[in-house]
Amino acid sequence: TEEKGLEYEMYYPKDVKPMVKLDPSKVREVISNLIDNAVKYTKEGFVHVYVEVEGGIVRVRVQDSGIGVPQSMVEKLFHKFNRGEDQSRLHVDGTGLGLYVGKNIVEANHGRIYVESEGEGKGSTFIVEFPYVAPERRVV
Question: What predicted TM-score, i.e. pTM, was given to this entire model?
């Protein structure tokens, strides 16, 4: 992010540590891929990462001010070999498997992954959610 001059911020609750059952290395790989994609597809502006705990869910949001996702591509992005429309304008290489593999990893860990975007040129937010066990319900 420094070489592109992007603002990078990470926000997370410092006092809440929910218990989440998942494969940490695989999920870390998914989140890293989302951050890498945000940097790749953002020429200027920002990449922000939010970790939130709310209503039995741990949510990670990777938000950017990049090229955005046209509504016609929202559902297709998580399919095999799909990189979206007109990515060539940023000269980005890739196989189109990252989001597909990420979706499979997230779902195998009982989570959900999706994207929100107001359209082309308006940035995007990739969201990963996992259920957690509330501290008062944990068995010791």
Answer: 0.84
